[in-house]
Write a structure and sequence with these properties.
Layout: H1 2-27, E1 34-41, E2 51-55, E3 67-71, H2 74-90, E4 94-99, H3 108-111, H4 123-130, E5 135-137, H5 146-155, E6 167-168, E7 172-173, E8 189-191, E9 200-201, E10 203-207, E11 214-221, H6 225-228, E12 235-236, H7 241-258, E13 264-269, H8 273-280, E14 289-293, E15 298-300, H9 310-313, E16 323-326, E17 329-332, E18 338-342, E19 350-358, E20 364-367, E21 375-376, H10 385-391, H11 401-419, E22 422-425, E23 431-432, H12 435-438, H13 444-459, E24 472-477, E25 488-489, E26 492-494, H14 495-501, E27 509-515, H15 517-527, E28 539-542, E29 544-549, E30 556-557, E31 563-565, E32 570-575, E33 580-583, E34 586-587, E35 594-599, H16 600-603, H17 610-613, E36 618-620, H18 631-640, E37 666-669, H19 672-675, H20 709-739
Parallel strand pairs: 1-4, 4-5, 5-6, 6-9, 8-10, 11-13, 13-14, 14-18, 15-16, 24-35, 29-37
Antiparallel strand pairs: 1-19, 2-3, 7-12, 10-11, 17-18, 19-20, 19-21, 22-26, 23-25, 24-28, 27-35, 27-36, 29-32, 30-31, 32-33, 33-34
Helix pairs in contact: 1-20, 4-11, 13-18
Length: 740
């Protein structure tokens, strides 16, 4: 009996050692390193609720008729993240969960957390707090409602107790914003768990809770931030990519040289993955993985389509024509090393997952291709049940119950109130607010909004500001007209629709006076600078007709507003009464100064309009209570007010200005090939061919002094043999004694 107990004890020891060795083998690479699951997403942009995708019969599924299926949204996204973390941990991997910027976006849903100075819950903060990110990188939309709202957002992550999630950007300086004083890390490098609430830094060292491995995170925000958002006194310390690279490299060097961290992940929000691949990464050394944000590029792993076809990587209803590259993209750094670059399409539609193996020197020895691809987010709900069965979906998730209760239900109730209040009806006219239209040619929505500016100027004229006259025009930037309600709208227009379309409620209607014809020409040169690509700086107009020849030389302007090439694209500017300001590309002698009504973002130079920024003659349009009027309110009042007062009386009139093609306020001249491309040209995207899976590190790598998995197995094999010998001997003795 004694020997049987000994045998049982030794067998137990063997099983424990075997379990430990298995964990080591799973978490360590073939040469003593570590395997990492990197989870990431970007551009969630207040997509709290699911999106309904339409799935046509010819999209690669078994359905024989068009059906709809709900995808995306915060509660289902969290469920996907939880599933992927559990899977990675079961395999012994280290895990990082990173967010690459643009947490929220002006929309009807964001209105439920406004105004800026309220104490309302910020539902985006509540959602992301529960998603358990290791770090959040600042994008451009985080500043759309001023640093004050961003401060509220950051502090929202401490609602449940300690504020400890890092918020990072190496090229942003918050020191001039008093509200952030107690949030800023002293030296900018956040090490380990934050305990003092100072969560804003330039970089961070994240230690994985399971493996103990340390990873360096360095972050960057687009240098164009001052021109596309409202950072106020938050200083962007890099005006271009080259300067940003210098700042980023300094952080990398600190991590590697001063702290011995040899696994570096760059997370940026530069608005286009091509900038990361072709401009930033080639200037850096030491980066292993890069995560991009702001471009919403849809990537798939084309190397695994035999085992995981495209239809299983994309959400049902997604167009394969929208795929912009392979996951991961391979970039090359300053030293010729491969950097694996990833991103996802936004709105919580996909959770990116990249599985890599680091060797003991911190170099990536392989990408685990079979598990590296964006995970789609499909809801396993009663409403989706028939679609899931018809499409053969096997990876749907039950939405997270806490987010459903605390966030989704609250947003739904809020939005129902907005949706039930009708402002006007289109009367059968299709309102076109598609991105390519409002940012590249005349739009009926743009015409109506610009008309609304002149309407409220007249309605509220008095001591504060004069009424418009025949020298008055209005402009509305295409970037301020959003697609949250879709690309078009027919029928009733609700308050929610107006919040979705004119979403930046901090945009106040502003009068700018005494603008010279020369400055006005420069403003429209800036508006046409990016043709044939669409541009947020493109201006919809009222009270003026504009003729462009986009085959002519474009204006060149630096981010600080310095014009190096004036531009020759503006051919003609003519006021509504026929007064010519620009003719044949030249300012007309004796042409009068004009006044211009626009939103406060543009009036204050947003979009890089220095001629407006530097004009001191600005006045806010105020209502009869002396309150400033935001641009959405101006549009609503114009649509609702009686026709006798100059409004539309609740019905959009069937007039040329409000037809989908407009009435000719903007004319774009050039050859046929350019005229046809006045809508957006596709942004260049990563197009490299699917790369071969990197070879495993050669067996001849120098020893690191650590015990390899092979060595562990050899040692355990010796113990196993010894135990079996002892066990056999013991059993024989035991049996002999029993027979005696």
């Amino acid at each position: 009996m004694f020997f049987k107990r000994r045998l049982l004890f030794l067998t137990t020891i063997l099983l424990i050692l075997f379990s430990v060795s298995t964990s080591l083998v799973l978490s360590q690479g073939n040469d003593g390193g570590v395997r990492l699951t990197l989870l990431h997403n970007n551009d969630g942009e207040t997509q709290i609720k699911p999106i309904s995708n339409r799935v046509s019969p010819d999209s690669g599924y078994a359905n024989t008729e068009e059906i709809s299926i709900d995808v995306a949204g915060v509660s289902a996204y969290k469920a996907v993240i939880d599933r992927e973390i559990a899977d990675a941990r079961a395999n012994g991997y280290a895990v990082l969960n990173l967010y690459a910027g643009d947490a929220y976006l002006a929309s009807a849903a964001l209105q439920c957390s406004l105004p800026v100075d309220s104490d309302k819950v910020i539902y985006d903060a509540n959602s992301q707090f529960l998603m358990g990110y290791d770090a959040h990188i600042f994008g451009n939309h985080e500043f759309d409602y001023s640093p004050d709202f961003l401060e509220r957002f950051v502090r929202g992550f401490g609602a449940g107790g300690t504020l400890d999630q890092p918020f990072l950007s190496a090229n942003l300086d918050f020191s001039n914003e008093a509200g952030f004083a107690d949030l800023l890390d002293e030296d900018g490098l956040i090490e380990g768990t934050v305990t003092d609430g100072r969560v804003i830094g330039k970089s961070a060292i994240i230690e994985d809770a399971e493996t103990g491995e340390k990873f360096g995170i360095v972050a960057a925000t687009t240098p164009s931030l001052p021109n596309i958002s409202s950072p106020r006194d938050v200083v962007v310390t890099a005006s271009n990519i080259e300067e940003a690279a210098t700042i980023i490299q300094a952080e990398i060097d600190i991590l590697m040289n001063d702290h011995g961290v040899n696994k570096i992940i760059l997370v940026s929000h530069l608005q286009n993955l091509v900038i990361d691949r072709d401009e930033l990464i080639p200037l850096l050394s030491g980066v292993d993985i890069a995560v991009g944000g702001g471009g919403d590029e849809l990537l798939v792993n084309e190397d695994i389509v035999d085992s995981i076809p495209i239809t299983r990587q994309l959400n049902p209803g997604e167009d394969t024509g929208d795929i912009e590259g392979n996951y991961p993209v391979e970039a090359t750094d300053k030293d010729g090393r491969t950097v694996y670059l990833v991103t996802t399409a936004g709105n919580y539609k996909y959770a990116g997952r990249l599985d890599v193996e680091f060797d003991a020197n911190g170099e990536i020895s392989q990408v685990m291709q079979e598990t590296s691809y964006p995970r789609r987010v499909i809801l396993n709900t009663e409403a989706n049940a028939s679609a899931i069965e018809m499409l053969g979906i096997t990876d749907s998730v039950v939405p997270d119950s806490q987010l459903e209760t605390d966030v989704v239900a609250s947003i739904t109730n809020c939005l129902e109130g907005f949706a039930n209040e009708v402002v006007a009806d289109t009367g059968g006219i299709t309102l076109d607010m598609s991105r390519s239209t409002v940012r590249g040619r005349e739009s009926n929505v743009g015409n109506m909004v610009a008309d609304a500016y002149l309407y409220v100027q007249k309605k509220y004229a008095g001591e504060n500001h004069p009424a418009p006259d025949n020298r008055s025009i209005a402009i509305q930037n295409g970037g301020g007209i959003r697609q949250n309600a879709g690309d078009s709208l027919v029928g009733p227009i609700s308050v929610m629709n107006t919040f979705d379309i004119l979403a930046f409620t901090t945009n106040k209607v502003t009068l700018v006076q005494d603008i010279t014809p020369t400055d006005l020409k420069a403003i429209f040169e800036r508006a046409s600078e990016r043709f044939p690509k669409d541009s947020g700086e493109f201006q919809q107009v009222s009270g003026i007709t504009v003729v462009y020849n986009v085959g002519n030389t474009a204006q060149v302007i630096e981010t600080d507003g310095n014009v190096t090439i004036p531009g020759e694209r503006v051919v003609s500017l003519v006021l509504a009464d026929g007064t010519e300001l620009v003719k044949d590309g030249n300012v007309v002698d004796g042409a009068p100064n004009i006044s211009l009504v626009t939103n406060s973002f543009v009036a204050n130079g947003g979009g890089n309009f220095p001629w407006l920024k530097n004009n001191p003659n600005k006045t806010d349009i105020r209502d009869f209570t002396s309150s400033k009027i935001d641009y959405g309110q101006a549009w609503r009042e114009y649509m609702q007010d009686p026709v006798s007062d100059g409004g539309l009386g609740g019905n959009i009139p069937n007039i040329p200005a409000y037809q989908s093609e407009g009435e000719g306020r903007i004319t774009i001249l050039t050859g046929e090939e350019i005229a046809e491309s006045s809508t957006e040209a596709p942004t260049e995207a990563p197009t490299e061919a699917p790369a071969e899976a990197p070879a495993e590190a050669p067996a001849s790598l120098p020893s690191t002094g650590e015990t390899s998995p092979t060595g562990v197995f050899l040692v355990l094999s010796f113990f196993a043999g010894l135990i079996l010998l002892i066990g056999g001997y013991s059993l024989r003795n035991s049996d002999g004694k029993a027979n005696n």
